[in-house]
Amino acid sequence: MPVADHATYCEMLDRARKGKFAYPAINVSSLTTANAVLKGLAESRSDGIIQVSTGGGAFASGTAVKDMALGAISIAEHVHRVAERYPVYVALHTDHCQADKLDKYVIPLVEETERRRAAGKSNLFNSHMFDGSALPLKENLDIAIKMLERFRKNDLILEIEAGVVGGEEDGIKASAAAKLYTTPEDTLEVARRLNGVQGARYLLAATFGNVHGVYKPGHVKLKPSILKDCQDAVVNKYGEAARFYLVFHGGSGSELHDIHEAVDYGVVKMNIDTDTQYAFTRAIADHFFKNYDGILKVDGEVGNKKAYDPRTYLALAETALAERVKQAVKELRAAGTTMMK
Ligand SMILES: [Zn+2]
Q1: Distance, CA 66 to ligand 1 centroid (Å)?
Q2: Distance CA 83, CA 285 (A)
Q3: pLDDT (tens digit, 9 = 90+) per residue, 311-323?
């Protein structure tokens, strides 16, 4: 089946929140990693989300070009073609984009979707994140509202962030003084302003101590109850229709009880990057250590072409990443939930 259209994606998110499960949103940066996600989702009979970060997009365009939007377009076009061969729906999303990168990343991608729509084609991406978490909330929401108005006209969903995800991703490091826990007051302000854009849809990355990356036990203190406090506050003030669709950033390395609690409070999308990066590389390392003599030309020998052909170890890595996706699907209670008939 092709990439989910807007109506299907909306229904996916509705079903997840109602059914208390969530979709894994996996970062990819190449054809192989994108194929791995599709394989893992298909084998789990779960729909899901493939996402591209600014750094992933730049990488995908090639080290000589380094154009984040071009690389993201290239990956998305690949997924549009191959997704038809998998029996699940996948949505395409772009990850963190700070205000100073909007003109280089999200805006060109929205323009690409606008061109496609004008030509009677489907959207390129289903949703994009604007990460204004480093800005004061008012400025963050001023930008978000403008984007949301444009997104509504194009059947795009906006993801925003209130509060700050700790740790480091794509070379962007959260400051030590960052606000790692979103407050109910912040989320009420998000609802007050964004819900005024009639007919638009957005996802909210509210932070509850999450960090990007994986740390030893004890380093990260997740407080999923913050999500419940935020949901209770918004439903009390604005009614059930205002309940948020939440995003869990920094899902890698999280404990199962925290994942389940967060999903119970309305998380519908959990981002995973570090754990899938590790799964991919772990399989390659395994192959290299086991086939050292064949991969390297040692002592005048010629090596073993089968061992060093990149397809050999990239196929192993693809399968290993797919297995990690299957684990995520299970942890998010999404196994078997595909809307594909
Ligand atoms: Zn994130």
Answers
A1: 21
A2: 29
A3: 999 999 999 999 9
Distance 296 CA to ligand 1 centre (A): 38
Residue found by looking up tokens 């909007």 in the block: 102
Ion ligand 1 nearby residues (CB, 5 A): 165, 249
8 A C-beta contact, residue 134 and residue 122? no
For 67, the enclosing helix (H) or strand (E) is none
**Residue 96 alpha carbon to ligand 1 centre in Å:** 6
Instruction: Name the β-bridge partners of 25.
Output: 49, 271
Query: What is the separation of C-alpha 304 from the centre of its chain, rounded to a whole number of angstroms?
Result: 38
Q: Please tell me the distance from the alpha carbon of residue 43 to that of residue 198, in angstroms, as a whole number.
A: 38
Instruction: Give the pair of three-digit tokens for residue 55.
Output: 């750094």
Which candidate in 47, 95, 229, 258 is catalytic? 95
Give the distance (Å) from ligand 1 centre to CA of residue 297.
41
**Residue 255: which region, alpha, beta or left (left: phi > 0; alpha: psi -120 to 50)?**
beta
pLDDT band with cut points at 50, 70 and 90 for residue 202:
very high
The phi-psi region of residue 18 (left if phi > 0; otherwise alpha if psi is between -120 and 50; otherwise beta) is alpha
If you measure from the C-alpha of residue 232 to the centroid of ligand 1, how many angstroms do you get, rounded to a whole number?
24
**Ligand 1 centroid distance, CA of 241 (Å):** 26
- Are residues 130 and 143 in contact, defined by beta-carbon separation less than 8 angstroms? yes
291, burial (CB in 10 Å: exposed 0-12, middle 13-18, buried 19+): middle
Read off the pLDDT of residues 50-85 as tens digits, 9 standing for 90 and up.
999 999 999 999 999 999 999 999 999 999 999 999
Catalytic residue at 95?
Answer: yes
The answer to whether the beta carbons of residues 235 and 274 sit under 8 Å apart is: no
Q: Is 302 a residue whose pLDDT tops 70?
A: yes
- Structure tokens, 333: 């209670």
Q: Which whole-number Å values give the CA distances from 224 to 4, 26, 74, 162, 267, in the listed order?
A: 29, 21, 36, 15, 10
What is the number of residues in the chain? 341
Q: Rounded CA gap, 39 and 191, in Å?
A: 37
Sheet architecture: strand order including 166-169: 172-173, 166-169, 211-212
